Amino acid sequence: MRQLRGQERVITADRQTSWAFADAYVAEDDTLHWARDRARDAGVPSVSPGTGAALRLLAGTADAKAVAEIGTGTGVSGIYLLQGMRPDGVLTTVDLEPERQTFAKQAFRSAGFAGNRARFIPGRALDVLPRLADGGYDLVFCDGDRLESLDYLAESLRLLRPGGLVCFEGVFADGRTVDSAAQPAEVIRLRELLRTVRESTELVSSLLPVGDGLLCAVRRG
Questions:
Q1: Are strands 203-208 and 214-219 parallel, antiparallel or unpaired?
Q2: Mean pLDDT, residues 168-184
Q3: Domains in the chain, ordered, with CATH?
């Protein structure tokens, strides 16, 4: 019997259990639970604990002082990012719905972050991002419209300093990204994003199996 290649390994029940354990490894406090409840009430998806922990780790590893976030939601991902950033770091977070940002502001305050640690900008991401400074960010986290993923990537490459990170949430699309059946345009766009990031000579990338898939890449110096 020939040896299976990595991508052909069977996903066993044990492996699924291990992934679930890894995603639940991080304990969340009352503030994060509150933000999740607000997201659930509003019908807004929020990052899993495993994804949040990965973002916190990446922000800490990058010693991030300036982070841009596409998709504020109710503040779950923002709390994790702020926890990993430098104490003087500022999170610039963009969302189309100002009422969501109101919840996020309350969550950040409850988590103990000073008001000057976050800059909230309501609006469509592709209208806001061009106004942000070239090379001024250590990390860009993208959790917005999947149809705009490639545009977010282009903007991120402009915004990031050499050695900075870009991360995309939800690239598994609940398993549809690898499903051979006909898929909607947003899933096709995610496949294009994955291929573009993997083939880019400007980026060093990895696809992390946390939450619904976290695609991460470092901009080469």
A1: antiparallel
A2: 95
A3: 3-219 (3.40.50.150)
